[in-house]
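Sorry to interrupt, but I need a hand with the structure work. Go ahead and set the record down below:
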Amino acid sequence: MMIQNRNILLSVLFFLSGIAQISAIPDPKINKYFSNRDIHFEIHYDTISDLAIRYLETYIYEEADILVFGLHGAASNAMLYKEIMSDTSLLNKNVRFISLDRPGYGMSTPGEAITDIEKQAEVVDYVISKFPFKSCILVGHSYGSPIVATYASKNQDKNIKLVMLAPAIDPELERIFPAVNMVNHPKTRQIMPESSQVAALENLVHEAELNEILPIWQTLKIPVYHIHGKLDMVISPKNLEFSKRNINPRFLTTFLMPDVGHHIVTFKPDEITDLIIKIIDGKI
């Protein structure tokens, strides 16, 4: 009965995530959020291999040469990082913050899923290459983490660090969420948000995709920070053990936050901001 109740809860969480974070947030709503803050803000549109993408940029100093790049997980969008990327205590560290709508979400070809982690990492590479930097901190949440990790594995000569927030990285811990059947059902698919539809398609193949990139973890020779919520019932905190088994302990720092679940960025933005600042200042 406990397992059945847990599956029901996961279904509800998965469904509500898609409803609560309708991914195609229009530009005027984004502009409204940032307009009253004492920072520079831009919305960028671009195309890579016929794929339309949108990403957000904030900074205080135009010459900012520390790049923080944020990538969201399933059924979300670039505004996941809105509080962090508008925090002047971070931006005053000479930081430029870039947050990308992942392919299929937001205004990056909404509704058209790209489930291949390698291909999504190519989009990340394309965006990051537009911004010169002296150092770069990659921040990925949930399904976004293996994507930025894949980029990191191929660019370890660029003075980069990797922050993974509640990452879904262990293929053996992947499960098909019960809600996926509801999202994919012909009678209900059309009323589901596009973000939920894309998330369902990603969920179906994520185990296979994680197995494809399995070799990258042991190649990482950059600082890696894995933060997980002890109360996470969407992506198991047991993913921490995967990191400990597969990433060289010389480069790995782990944190288990006792009072938060999967949505670390939403409920703990100040703590994540403080973590990034400590990384920049060399305190961790």
